[in-house]
Structures are given as structure tokens and as C-alpha cells.
Design a protein that fits this description.
The protein is α+β, with helices and mostly antiparallel strands. Helix content is 16%, strand content 51%. It contains 1 helix and 5 strands, in the order E-E-E-E-E-H. The chain has a 5-stranded antiparallel sheet with strand order 4-3-2-1-5. The longest helix is centred in the last third of the chain and has 12 residues. The two termini are 19 Å apart.
Length: 75
């Protein structure tokens, strides 16, 4: 799940909360990319926005792992 190394170009899956409806979470695909503001750092690219790749995100390397965790936590 977390704490693994990622490389630019990796596709990962995260839980994304709708900013308008906070109690709704979905699994969303995101790309790991070089941070355009600091190319030595990685970022998540999601919905045309860059997010720092931090421990604030629960990141899964496969959609199946994300779905299993989603059902465990949200159902």
C-alpha cells in the first residue's frame, strides 16, 4: 500500500473525496509524475492538478487492491 517507491509514469489508485460532498469517496486513477515546480520530487497528477506525493494519500499500485480496501473501510 504506502511506503513503496514510485517512478514517474506509474499509474496508481487513491481514495478521492468529492470536495462538494465530503462523505462520498471514490477510487480514482492517478499518474505519478515529476513535480513541475520541483523536478527532483514526484507528484500525483489527478484531474488536471498536481498534488505532492506525501503520506496524506493512501496509494495503491493496483485497482484490485484499492477496491478491496475500499470495501473494507466504506462498506
Amino acid at each position: 500500500m504506502q511506503q513503496q517507491s514510485y517512478n514517474a509514469g506509474d499509474i496508481v489508485y487513491i481514495f478521492y473525496r468529492n470536495p462538494h460532498i465530503q462523505d462520498v469517496a471514490n477510487i480514482q486513477e492517478a499518474a505519478v509524475v515529476n513535480n513541475p515546480d520541483n523536478p527532483q520530487e514526484l507528484a500525483l497528477f489527478l484531474f488536471e492538478t498536481y498534488y505532492p506525493l506525501t503520506n496524506d494519500f493512501v496509494i495503491f499500485s493496483s485497482e484490485m487492491d484499492a477496491e478491496q480496501a475500499y470495501h473494507q473501510y466504506f462498506h
